[in-house]
Model the fold of this input.
Amino acid sequence: MDLSTPLQFVKGIGPARAQMLGAKGLETVADLLYYAPFRYEDRSNVKPIRELAPGEKAATVARVATAKLAGFRRAALGLFEAVFEDESGNTLLTRFFHGERYAERLVPGVRAALFGKIELDRASGRRLIVQPEVEILSGEEEDNTLHLGRIVAVYEAAGKISTRVFRGLLDRILREVALPEDALPKSVKERVGLPDLASAIRELHQPAAGTDLRLLNEFRTPAQTRLIFDEFFWLECGLALKKNKARAAAGISFAVTESARTQIKKMLPFRPTAAQRRAMQEIADDMKRAHPMHRLLQGDVGSGKTIVAAQAAVIAIENGFQVAVLAPTEILAVQHRAYFERLLQKLGYQVAALTGSAGAREKQYVKNSVAEGLVQMVVGTHALLQEDVAFHNLGLAIIDEQHRFGVRQRLELFRKGAQPDVIVMTATPIPRTLALTLYGDLDVSTIDELPPGRKPIVTRHVPDTDVERVYSFVAQEIRAGRQAYVVYPVVEETETAAVKAAEKMYKHLSTKVFPGVRVGLLHGKLNTEERTAAMREFVAGSTKILVATTVIEVGVDVPNASVMVIEQAERFGLAQIHQLRGRVGRSSQQSYCVLVTGKLNDIARERIRTLVSSNDGFHIAEMDMRLRGPGEFFGTRQSGIPGLRLADLLRDADLLELARGEAKHFLESGTQSELRDAVRYIQEHWQRKYGLVQVG
Ligand code: ADP
Ligand code: MG
Done:
């Protein structure tokens, strides 16, 4: 048996268990060695019942004497009580809430190990453990030294494979297999002060007596730290090598001339915030370099990313190049076109739009102008990516709302120019190191400040039974001269149910609730002209209420709108609601967001609570990641992040930071032979395992 042995051939596993393990992604002995326990229990303190002292946490082994699942009275529903008796005849009471599943297993005669805080039950005078950890012991003769009298690891079960079976399997493997060779460069290990690999793996599964339980459960013992660090270190080395290679490619070196500076000053309608100026500087520095820029511009919704992108556009155009702006929806493309046109027309630049629904002749006209270099900027949707769209000389691509587009689309746009610079903008900001890792090939600029004078949006949760109250509030805001959105959930833009709901609500609101007020309707089933008209009327303020499906989710900018009502808010994702909410609060006036919901499950309630209590996009993105898991949040495939085994991008953010710094330091200062070994290691292990593209 060695590290690469398929688990099926390990003694005690066989085909059935191998299949259950396979379902968890565990194929080989090595996989099992890296299967991390999700928590640990201190069972070193095992005592007979007689010696259990109230107040202490302890373990004991005893047999079920009597057990009962408490009756049908509502208050006691699901309460399960079992009395345990040990060899010396002493008894211990245990109590489980929602104990139905224990009732089936803890029947009289069953022997079990129990752990928990010892209390005294006043009524019976017995020792008591409420909600103990329970592990049923199988046979009289079984060797329990792996499971009792020490700190034990607790594994997530795989099919029918229990934590006890895992403990047994790992014990055998640890005794019989030669553990992996330690590839972490010695210099790094010493700098950080990390234990060697073999002992770290051992400690992961069988912590030594006296190991700090709190550290263990926080995954911060030296052994756990070492293993988590490993994963991040190689990941960061791999990303850095890949990025260095991409950075070495030839690109356009833009000059930031005096005339460009003058044009930028002329364009800016307001004083940029310090954060905007910093991002502008980072982008300008990148553009000057003779290599392609790949930069993520992240900032909370409303933080003013567009003007930063516009400044980059001026630099490109002043250097005689064209700029492409890629937007995720048609509505947003139209908005962007108007916004950029307002900014750039006064500088004498031509801005065109290319979207899927434009007429054939218009499209052809725009394509010709783009190909001949008659327009300096073209704003569009996916239509821009089409084969037959050619640029005269594309120098800068700006991609809005990155999470809607994959890496592939970015590359398609990239190929339309001679190595153009690329800015991707996202309104889902995340901590810098995390962003640098997840979007491995991008540099990151963050706008972490809102334009001055903004009042935080007040967010309220209202049950749908109280929706009349919401409407009277909306009426009040409209009388005060403001405008409101009422949004309905839609999973896909084509979903007819939501469109129907919006249409129905539009009728209801415009005729019954707000008879004297002009109400507009906007959804994905309308044609472009109708949509543009609906948007235009709302922007102009001639409609006061806009009933919409989520087509307005991204980027719409109407500063006079002060209320965002989101119906069936429980059906939206966290980040999505935050985006929607960002459509208001765009002026110095107080704005409101009302989340109307039906009955909530736990996760939905947590989401609503987060939104009501926070306006901070960083915090919301983090909560979203926690509630949905980073894989789901980013779409693992798109971000190219490999499946991490022990490391957790959120929990271990500090170690990610550390590993990133160490990887950088190592790549800059490692010896030739260390670097050669590292590249080989990455090629052999990391790359194969995680399927990333060629390194080095
Ligand atoms: P987002 O980052 O969500 O794309 P926008 O670029 O749409 O944000 O900007 C939001 C609003 O704030 C726009 O109306 C924009 O004109 C305005 N804005 C941006 N920066 C500033 C600033 N420094 N001072 C005042 N208003 C600003
Ligand atoms: Mg935007």
Remarks:
- Residues 305-306, 400, 555 surround magnesium ion (ligand 2) (CB under 6 Å).
